[in-house]
Amino acid sequence: MAFATMWELLQSGRDADLAIGAPEEKALTHAGLRALAARTVADLNAMGIGRNDRVAIVLPNGPEMAAAFLCVAAGATTAPLNPAYRAEEFEFYLTDLKAKALVVQEGDATPARAVAEKLGVPVVELVPTRAAGAGSFALKKGALSGKPAQGGYAAADDVALVLHTSGTTSRPKIVPLAQSNVCASARHIGATLELKPGDRCLNIMPLFHIHGLIAAVLSSIGAGGSTVCTPGFNALKFFAWLDEAKPSWYTAVPTMHQAILSRAERNKESIAKAKLRFIRSSSASLPPQVMQELEAVFGAPVIESYGMTEAAHQMASNPLPPRARKPGSVGIAAGPEVRIMDEEGNLLPNGALGEVVIRGPNVTKGYEANPDANLKGFANGWFRTGDQGTLDEEGYLRITGRLKELINRGGEKVSPLEVDEIIMDHPAVAQIVTFAMPHDKLGEEVAAAVVLREGQTATERELRDFAAKRLADFKVPRKIVFLPEIPKGATGKLQRIGLADKLGLGK
Ligand code: AMP
Fold first, then answer.
1. Which residue from 132, 178, 227, 325 has the least number of CB within 10 angstroms?
2. Which helix (H) or strand (E) holds 462?
3. Closest Cα to atom 22, ligand 1: which residue?
4. Is the model more confident about 492 or about 92?
5. Cβ 280 vs Cβ 305: under 8 Å
6. Which secondary structure element, helix H or strand E, spans residue 45, and what is its range?
7. What is d(CA 302, CA 293) in angstroms, rounded to the nearest whole number?
């Protein structure tokens, strides 16, 4: 179906077919989900919240988060935030987003509440009503009332989702994704994976990140299929969920696949019963050995895809059999056009190495209120991904490196500058450079080199504890080395890329 808005996308499934499930819960049907979306949009409108108004959402991972995303986005702009953020992080995001309301679960003691109250952002409580089906909820209006500037269902050009990307700058950039962007991405993923109404995805991905929101939830619902939403990845529970949910596929980051493989031996029975049509991997590079082992263990093809927030997720993907999937490659263009560009903005022929650039209906129009980032991020109508790669003769893309300074910690992205800024506040620190250190399982881990002020002392532990007060755990450097000075590159410039090697922390 050629849906271009969330409301149109929600019409895809047959009334009685399952849409959202959860372990040990009754599932919500597509008809139930549509009714929930209609009610949610009416409730939001009655609170004075309408199209393009931003609703920040901080919910535990699970069916309500999936449903809240789908239903709120049908009539407003959703801004899901990582529940693991510290108060300071929430304050930055809620302010930067200009959130009109914050949705939290009734009884949830998230620090986001106090921050919202301090900032004067109204808090809307979500009350799960699971007896009506997994993901069902009611919104408590509180004191909110009013008339939105534009009520009703959102149109194709309205913004459905805003996410921040950790950029090369310390200040994360706002990525607005139009209804048409996220819908295009859901259609592309559905087409790549040949998703049908009978398909069921087991969601183990966080639902504040583009991968889970679009690949696991939106593409399934848009194909008339279903998603069974777990509370988030847990290697000890994965096989029980597989037994119960009987999914036809799941999507994950490589570290999760590795954790699943490490428990495969003791869960042979579940694996034998599982009827996975395929397994999908994205958000970080999948080592070919892991791909081969997964295929051997599950007897299902492993489809590696290449995604990015600015592209509403999918850009390239390996195809399903009988077409070839190439280990070590992220596949062929799967929605947008994918090309390689040189620094001057010239498109290069297949075989050449350069920056991966994309263009298509799933790609954001541009960062919000950030002309500098837009100038750097777009060239001749192409979006620059900041990834370096090459296309082979058959159009398969290989990612060979990164031009941006992001740290990819097993799919979780960390901006080194954000970490620098926090640790610089420690009185003993004169200089700090945060960088990516190779890691067996995660691919990359956060590390930092620190120069202390003369006569001052600080231990690694002390600095880590200091950082952890203001940064979510995944951003806190796992290793901090103390140096008399930070090594510079050949040009005398400070270089994060390659620093691990220089410091003997490489592989
Ligand atoms: P995010 O916006 O969090 O989805 O991160 C996007 C970035 O993740 C991309 O620009 C790549 O650097 C990286 N990435 C995503 N998928 C892959 C993949 N299959 N292989 C290697 N890197 C990937």
1. 132
2. helix 460-468
3. 284
4. 92
5. yes
6. helix 30-46
7. 10
CA nearest to 154, candidates 73, 36, 78, 35: 73
Quick count: other Cβ atoms within 10 Å of Cβ 503?
Answer: 17
61 lines ligand 1 (CB under 6 A): no
Burial (CB count <10 Å: 0-12, 13-18, 19+), residue 493: exposed
Mutational test site, ligand 1, from 174, 308, 475, max ligand atoms within 8 Å of CB: 308
Residue 425, number of CB atoms within 10 A of its CB: 10
% of the chain beyond a pLDDT of 90: 91
181: left (phi over 0), alpha (psi -120 to 50) or beta: alpha
166: left (phi over 0), alpha (psi -120 to 50) or beta: beta
**Do the beta carbons of residue 73 and residue 79 sit within 8 Å?**
no
pLDDT score of 263 more than 80: yes
412 CB under 6 A from ligand 1? no
d(CA 356, CA 286) in angstroms, rounded, equals 18
For the segment 4-29, the average pLDDT, to the nearest whole number, is 98
pLDDT in tens, 361-385: 999 999 999 999 999 999 999 999 9
Helices (H), 338-404: 371-377
SS (H, E, C) 63-90: HHHHHHHHHHHCCCEEEECCCCCCHHHH
Say yes or no: CB of residue 329 within 6 Å of ligand 1.
no
Instruction: Give the CA angle between residues 230, 363, 312 to the nearest 5°.
Output: 5
What is the three-class DSSP state of 297?
helix
Measured in residues, the chain has a length of 507
Domains of the chain by start residue, with CATH: 29-177 (3.40.50.980), 406-502 (3.30.300.30)
Q: For residue 30, what is the DSSP state?
A: H
Tell me the β-bridge partners of 481.
449
pLDDT > 70? residue 490: no
pLDDT at 166: 77
The angle, 0 to 180 degrees and rounded to 10, between the axes of the packed helices 460-468 and 416-424 is 110
What value does the mean pLDDT take over residues 105-129?
A: 97
